[in-house]
Amino acid sequence: MASRSYGACFLCQRAAVVNIMFRSVSSASLPQPKVDFLKGELHRKHPGVTNLKTVRLPEQLQLAAQSIIHRIRVPQLVERSQKLTNFLWSRKRAVEDLMLRQKAVSMEKELWEKAVQNIREDVDEQLLEDRIRKKVLSELRRTTHRWTPLKYDEDLSIVYMAARLAGGYAAVRRALNEIKKRHPSFAPQTLLDFGSGLGTVAWASHSCWGDSLKEIVCVDSSAAMNVLAEQLLKGDDERAQPHIKHVYFRQFLPVSPKVQFDLVVAAFTLSELPNANDRADVVTTLWRKTNSYLVLVENGTKEGHQMMMEARDVLLKKQEKVVHDSRPASVFAPCPHEMMCPKLAKEPVMPCNFHQRYHPLPLPGRHECQTEKFSYLILSRTKPAEPTPEGLDWGRLIAPVLCRTRHVHCHMCCSNGRLQHMVVTARKHSRDVYRCARNSEWGDQLPIVEYVKEETEVHSDSES
Questions:
Q1: pLDDT at position 51, please?
Q2: Model confidence pLDDT, tens digit, residues 55-83
Q3: For residue 20, is it within any domain?
Q4: 117 and 172: one domain?
Q5: How far apart are CA 200 and CA 160, in angstroms?
Q6: What is the predicted pLDDT for the residue at 461?
Q7: The pLDDT of residue 121
């Protein structure tokens, strides 16, 4: 019995030694990154993580909104807010005049070709031409989206608040967090919010940078919306001091092109402009007023994404006749490159959008967390404080991360302007990158690094 127990003990010890040797070899054989991209952070807080947990409205803002809703009592508020949400989400850009003419010419040509095949000698050509033109006009009216501007009076402003206050705040807060996380030393003193609406940008920026903001200029053409935004700041009490100081409301932009702001934001504003020329003019004007960062946010639809790409092309490619600030525009987020968006070149065209979970404004039937899908663009005049080291690159996660056993599926937009489906494993991409991938979410950045493989010699027992 004793000999058997000694033999079993020896075998266990032998197995333990082999297991330790195997682990050391497999660990050493994993690829090692050339660059320390973690910078001392935990994998779940790596430098590419910019997503937020479920966002809540600031308590003072939520209480003020509930007080206004209770005081004014707009009839059928919940139903009307849902209809407005659906309308804004499905809203398309107005069809440009040039595209409308091209469509009309194409339809007219097609109808003439069909008519010529069936034409008779006694047909009056003038009458046929009139019929074709009437048919073209009728078809254009039936198939062309009719864009109409929204005029926000007191009633519609409150419906908009019930529909979009929490979702709009969540999207802006997430976009601003990209700057706060990646440029921690940035502390803006001045902010311009164009198309300020309910003032959600002022609240979101205050939650990011607090009292470093010394001047917040909110510009909105709707007087009723400006009044409502000011009521929200004062907690629905005219005699109270505003919760955020130094907020000024205007109906028009400051005239002087030399007046610049550290941070300029236009959230859900470009979709309120009737055509591409107006959008280009507004984006150019806002860029002139930008000292550090310009932030644009729209719905996460095809229309919203394409408006972001329109704005990007205007600022990266258009040369101004009079230059007041010679510092060029560069894309800060979300794109890791300045080439054509690969999602627009791929059929079917899918929007590049991101999502943020949030707690909605408490209304009847609204208690569960909701998800805001949005597209955004951040352009910068400032150069990064620390240039990206050689051997390190960052890709943007453009779809949900799928974690599986010992591997992670990551769909990314990369700095070479291409979309990539990367299956991340510890053996192929290093343990650090693998753990970062498992802790990343849609919208975060993921490191793409070069590796150094270490060769390890394993000595057998006979050599030892």
A1: 95
A2: 999 999 999 999 999 999 999 999 999 99
A3: no
A4: no
A5: 12
A6: 39
A7: 61
Say yes or no: 77 and 137 in one domain: no
Q: Are residues 304 and 432 in the same domain?
A: no
Residue-wise pLDDT for 97-116, tens only, equals 777 777 778 887 887 777 77
Indicate if 193 and 269 belong to the same structural domain: yes
Give the global pTM: 0.85
Q: Is residue 45 in some structural domain? A: no
Q: Can you list the residues of the chain whose pLDDT is less than 70?
A: 1-30, 33-34, 119-123, 384-387, 450-464
67 within some domain: yes
pLDDT value, residue 12? 52
Domain harbouring 353, CATH code:
3.40.50.150
Pair 108, 250 in one domain: no
Q: 271 and 213 in one domain? A: yes
Cβ neighbours of 174 (radius 10 Å): 24
Domain of residue 442 covers: 394-447
Same domain, residue pair 408 and 376: no
